[in-house]
Design brief:
With 89 residues, the chain is mainly β. The chain folds into 2 domains: 31 residues, no CATH class; 50 residues, no CATH class. The chain contains 1 helix and 3 strands. It has a 3-stranded antiparallel beta sheet, with no helix packed on it. A hairpin with a 4-residue loop joins β1 and β2. The two termini are 47 Å apart.
Length: 89
Amino acid sequence: MFGSGALPDGTVPNIGSDVTSTLETSGILPTPVRTNAFMYTLGGGVQVPVTTHWAADLGYRYSRIAADTALSSGALGTNAMTFGFGYRF
């Protein structure tokens, strides 16, 4: 998104305009190569009843994207933990 100032060709587009094609045409921004990467997610969790209507839960999730070197220095992995406490009707 365009913020302010003039583009290399001298034009001044409206703030918030998409100027990607203009920058690609001028050669300043190379067109990114489109790629696909394999991704998987594994996870699990447990829910424990505390009383008749209250329950606590705990969960874990791991995700990995087998990215090439254009995205990062290699694969990208994430870890997530969730905690919850809820009322059941």
